[in-house]
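I keep forgetting this: the sequence line spells out the residues, with the fold written below as integer tokens. I include a record here:
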Amino acid sequence: LPERWLGAGPIPGRPQLREARSEARAEQFVIRQDLVTDQLASLLDKLKAFHIQLVGDDIDEGLIQRAFAGCICQGTRQRLAVAKALIELGGEETDRVGILSQNRPEWAIVDFAIQSAGAVTVPLYTTGSTKQARHIVEETELKVLFVGERSQYEKTLSLVDSCASLRKVVVFDDDIDFGKDERFVRYEDFIDWGKRSRKDDI
């Protein structure tokens, strides 16, 4: 809770608690933005170093920065599209959205998209068992779960049958065939759905 509510005084009511959660999420979002900014700056330095290894000291700063900016813009477009798609699913401010995936660019994009939609990110360990994943899904009442590769997708096959809250599983890898099961959707199709959304309150 904010410092002004710590110490003596009456216990905050429900409106104050909602305000506290909103403030906490905003602070967390700023912290994560700062971390990402630092990581992007580090990545840009690594790109320059890699370019030097390839062509020597005669590097094209403009070319590197344009390519880097293009990646950032693409990530931002994906974040907005995923956030809008989550809202289209009927997401509410306190909804929990899970991510079961190894480290990859989509993980960070989806994490920011979840926060942009006002929901809460629930990470699941990729090394955990199906039983452990089921416990997390049930305890947090996950509505949407993003999964990475085949091994993580296979864990969700029993979850969608046994966890009542889980309505949609978004799959990052495009080589996984889940047939016509509408509970599953490819990440690219989920993004396209968000792009077609008319939601503008993100």
Observations:
- Residues 1-12 have pLDDT under 50 and may be disordered.
- The beta strands are 96-100, 120-123, 144-147, 168-171, 184-186.
- The longest strand covers residues 96-100.
